[in-house]
Amino acid sequence: MNIEDFREYCLSLPHVTEKMPFTTVKDPYSREVLCFYIGSKWFCYVNIEVFDRCCVKSTPEDAEELRMRYEGIRPAWHMNKRMWSDVYFNRDVPDKTIFELVRQSYELVYQSLTKKEKLALGG
Q1: Does domain 3-112 have CATH number 3.90.1150.30?
Q2: Are the beta carbons of 66 and 73 closer than 8 angstroms?
Q3: Where are the domains of the chain?
Q4: What is the pLDDT of residues 77-104, one digit of tens each?
């Protein structure tokens, strides 16, 4: 997995936008974080320089199960640890599974958008 393939996959999902919202923070790692959004909410983010992991959302039950199954899935740094997980690249999580987790995160976040936001996206 590389940043280009990962970014291309995220942007292939309907109505996804991207931005780097932390470019002015003091933490060097956070300054290089690229977030992928559906509407006004992000569903995934990744550091574009280090490219060591991505962060995705899931249900609390799925998050717990995934963390038990994979060494490369841990509670997310600076996020709600019940629902957000860091998924480490080049560990025991297959690329196909990472893409599935990104897609599930996208769908979960899409469902949390307001009716007005969904309508603005054509949904």
Answers
A1: yes
A2: yes
A3: 3-112
A4: 888 888 999 999 999 999 999 999 999 9
